[in-house]
Amino acid sequence: MRWLGVDPGERRVGIAACDPDERIAVPIEVVPASAALPAIRSIARREHIEGIVVGLPITLAGEEGFAARKARKLGERVRRVLGLPVEYEDERLTSWAAEQAGASGPADDVAAALMLQQFIERRRRERAEAPDDAAR
Fold first, then answer.
1. Angle of helix 36-46 versus helix 66-82 axis, rounded to 10
2. Residue 27: in which H helix or E strand, if any?
3. CA–CA gap between residue 78 and residue 73 (Å, rounded)
4. Residue 57 forms beta bridges with which residues?
5. How far apart are CA 46 and CA 43, in angstroms?
6. Residue 96 region, left (φ>0) first, then alpha (ψ -120 to 50), else beta?
7. What residue ranges do the domains of the chain occupy?
8. The whole model's pTM is what?
């Protein structure tokens, strides 16, 4: 399944995508927050996206605050407008990790790729751990 990762921020939104086999996520673009929805729609169409993963800025204490509520609102708008499934992934420390990786300029798309990679790896682990219903 082809997923689009969205790292929402106050000023900018990072966007990344994974390959159809959900192996690797790559940065795509950084867009102004004010243009996030049209950009997400355009990129999703261009990249043949089947689902959206919105990064949730969970606090270090593990709680959802104001920024997480805003991210969920963006996810709901994306779901309504695009008609695609929307998932959420904890994005704690992805922006910091992107900066540490040496991203030049705004690292929001790299942070989106890190968050999306985390999501697809978690899905892979969950599928591997799930009981095989076909064997029953």
1. 50
2. strand 25-32
3. 9
4. none
5. 5
6. alpha
7. 3-130
8. 0.88
Q: At which residue do the structure tokens 């540490």 appear?
A: 100
Q: Among all chains, which residue has been given the structure tokens 């790299």? A: 110
Interatomic CA distance for residues 52 and 38, integer angstroms: 14
Q: What is the pLDDT of residues 93-120, one digit of tens each?
A: 666 666 666 655 568 899 999 999 999 9
Token digits for 76?
């709901």
CA-nearest of 33, 37, 4, 2 to 113 is 4
What is the assigned CATH class of domain 3-130? alpha beta
Q: What is the pLDDT of residues 17-47, one digit of tens each?
A: 999 999 999 999 999 999 999 999 999 999 9
Within 13 Å, how many C-alpha atoms sit on residue 121's CB side?
Answer: 8
